[in-house]
Amino acid sequence: MMMSPAVLTRRAAPVLACIGLLAVWQVASLALKNDSFPTAVEAVRAIPDILGDKESLTNILASLRRMAIGFGVAVLVSIPLGLLMGRSRAIAAFFNPLLMVIYPVPKAALMPIIMLWLGVGDVTKTLVIFLGVSLPVIYHSFEGAKAVEEKMLWSGAAMGLSPAQRLVRIVLPAALPEILTGCRTGLVLALITMITSEMIARQSGAGNILFNALDMGQYDTVFAMIIIVGAMGICLDAIFERVRARLVRWSEPQFDMPLSFS
Amino acid sequence: MMSRLLPSNLVLGIAPIVLVIALWQGLVSFGFAPAVLLPPPGFVFSRLLQQLVTLTFQQEIAATLIRLFAGFAIAVVLGVSIGIAAAASPAINAVVRPIVRVLAPLPKVALYPALLLLLGFGHGSKVTLVAADALFPILLSTYYGASTVEQKLIWSAMAAGTPRYEILFKVVLPAAMPSILTGCRIGLVISCIVVFLAEMITSTDGLGHALVTAARTFQAVDMFVPLITISLLGLILNGLLGAVRSYLLRGFPEA
Amino acid sequence: MKAQQNGRGSNDAPHGCENDRLSGRLLAKFVPLNVRASETEDGMTVVPARPSEWMSPVTSQEPASAIIEINHVSQVFQTSARKDHLALSDISLTIEEGAFVSILGPSGCGKSTLLYIVGGFVSPTSGMAKIRGHAITAPGPDRGPVFQEFALFPWKTVLGNVMYGPRQQGVRTAEAEAQSRALIEMVGLKGFENFFPKELSGGMKQRVALARTLAYHPEVLLMDEPFGALDAHTRTRLQNDLLNIWERDRKTVLFVTHSVDEAVFLSDKVVMMSKSPGRIRQVIDIDLPRPRRRNELLLDPQYQKYVVDIERMFDESDEAGAPT
Asked: Which CATH number do you get for residue C115?
């Protein structure tokens, strides 16, 4: 299928941006001539070594699995909670202050404390990811549910839908664009929390590979790993954006630059 | 970000916090959790107060705050100027947009090892990491605010004789202010979180370092203290910015 | 009172100009069309327009005191990648100094776009607009807009909004403030100087917007459905007040509206437009005495006849088969 030039440009722009950034890196590293700053080419060459190494690959895949579980559970819990909060003043008043207090706590920083209680296993790491993802998803679900037009719910009630049915069949779809915005933020956050907690705990996983390589002076590996993690972030975001666009085709075109933070 | 979740019903809101603390106390009192692992809340808070007046702890806070503000300030300056420029100029937009698309979902913390290699273990790498993390929410909301400024505001100013370049400062910037401040608020909380994490990963001072030191010696109480401090700092700074916001936006509806 | 500032954009606002908000340039392509608008000035001899009549040659009468000339202006908007929309087709119009001229037409006939072209906010795809013989290329303080959406600066108080223009013109603060306070009093908002726009009702906001525009003494007022967002009662009061203000200095006013009553009540001349593509189908002189009093005018058979005739003409053109 032929694509129009405009579409082609839009698709190609991020790729061009990647190439441009790598080029800037290459020039900078050549100019700086710093031993600890490998060129982009050297870093890219080191990628196959990492992905080819069985132990590294297992580590990365284990990280991704924990991330998927943490993200999945967080979404399943947070969306209903957020929707309920959005539709009931009492529930919102009950949870809001608690969430406000938890909000500025760095989730990955809970790692040492949770490790103290639950050990260094998968449960700890997954729990931290779960905590990291929950808040934005709750917040966006809450905002989405709150903004659902009252008249739409009245129409539903007039058609004989029970409150529970209204929540599932009206509030959920109406708030979906906003919910998915929260999930998108949550997804990037899951990755960030995963890396950070692994950097802090230094036991296993992608974050650990980064710092092990740093400690052993394998600078190519450090930068190659950064590329891998960066690519994971960009790919996950792109895939999610596809899914999102498909799910909420009916809604107003959304602001298309992703918002993400840790 | 959570600012709009202000308690409408204070009693109902305090209830879960009281419950959590009661549960915490209960777990310790009834021996479900040994005090070594989970120190009782009273102990933690008295330790916090005790620490807050010591000079060493205040120095840790100062180190953290310096990094936080430096990084946040850089992020605000860069984010607002790039955001406005991208909204005002199609050429800049064409360059900035794809780069932001690539860099925004990238987990910035993964860059930290690289920053350590390039900028050393001192302030530089941490400030840069904070700036990199806080930059994007500020940039994106500035861009969003600036590109959705009502056309007719701009026209009204142009008709009154405002030159084109002045429009950016006299109309676009103030009109985008609600959006910019929302971005700043998100950026500020992120700054708090990131500076703490960076200090945990590698540092010789700061609140994050205090937590790691306590963790190495299994001092559960001392682990809670810096964590609560950084969260309080986050809440206080958030509140201060909220006050600034409501003053600056006093003319805007729903602010 | 809360007024929604957003989401009330006029229907004929150009599409596809999102990317270029600041420069006001529009990505538009010119599609030549051999259709002409005729400018008939025969007052009450209102004849149903037929396409054949649109083809009649332009009667160019150049009044000595023409302030605005619109020469063969066409405007094409790109609505999507492939489709173009001809918003205005070969419009020619002359506006005399001191005249109150209304542009009347259904939504989507490009009447606001025509106003924006005179304002210099939008560049026409072809043709040109002139003010006092100079081509219009950009907005300027000689043409002051008043928008349906008010477009007040939310971060400035009432006084700050009104003072904006004079300050921009280099008037000293004290002087600008004195002038602005006088204007605020004139539009009936004394005592509200330090209020923010959000604290005012829709009608009050529009009074502020009018004062803000009058403050920099434009030669021409460009009013884009200024009362379209107001309730009927407020609307009537503002119409009366606008006429009173206009009687004082008889500025040239170009007034866009879709209300027949409003156009007849206010104007010396009503320019009727038809849509798809937007063309002038008739220019009608409103020969009613001034100063006009609403309660007298509504009972005036001549006023009623103008209204009924104009409405009938719109109806007939609808029946004649709306163009695709």
From this structure: 3.40.50.300
